[in-house]
Hints:
The chain is of the alpha+beta class. It has a single domain (2-220), classed as Immunoglobulin-like, CATH 2.60.40. It has three helices and ten strands. It has helices at 2-20, 135-147, 155-172, and strands at 36-45, 50-53, 64-72, 76-84, 97-101, 107-115, 123-130, 192-193, 205-208, 215-220. Strands 1, 2, 3, 6, 8 and 9 form a six-stranded antiparallel sheet that branches. Strands 5-4-7-10 form a four-stranded antiparallel sheet, covered by helices on one side. The longest helix is centred in the first third of the chain and has 19 residues, at 2-20. The chain is globular, with a radius of gyration of 16 Å. 39% of the residues are buried. Mean pLDDT is 81; it is low at 9-27 and 176-191.
Amino acid sequence: MVESFIMDVRAFLVALAIALAVRFAGAQAADQRKPYGRACVTVVDAAAKTETVFTPEMKPGNERSVVVHLDANSSCEALVAAFIERDGSLAFGWRPVFLALSQWDEKTAGGDRWPWKQTEEPFEIVVLFFAPGSADAAQIKKLFTAMQESPNNSRLLEIQTNKLHELIGHAMADKDLSRFRAKAETADVAGVTRGDSFPWRRFARDANFMPELPGALIFSSGPAK
């Protein structure tokens, strides 16, 4: 039973990654005449006082944390979640984040709540942008709230994570995902800055969203499959 679930999760993650095609090659920009969201993943090193664009080659460290910057050109809601590629569990116990975004209202997820100190393990960060009034978003938000109180490594959290995969799959099922291939930056992706203002928009990927289909982005810590 458990092995069957793991296989299903693996298949889901691989299929979603291929369909969305948001890695460093072959990506398209969102249509900026329509509602879209954008996101950029960075790694903050508290010891070195640096913030660096996240790339598959980066390694964890004792003072490192992962940050997801995001905004949108119109009001929406966003889910940010990270999963271990091997079995679909929450990456390093990081809890999902659910955010309400107003027009060009920059928000961040992760940071101190997403410390990246653990032994290297390939993981993926999934970002979904939902149009206002989305029924899928309402279900995910309810589950997100419940997950915040669940103990780490508990059976309850495992069940909730399984349910989150199910809800994500339902939101994206049987849709033409090719339109959501996000623009990827190839130049200077490892740029580093010191201080409080990191130019994350320069490296952001974007995806259109609509009432019947969320915009989606995947950022992977491993090599492209």
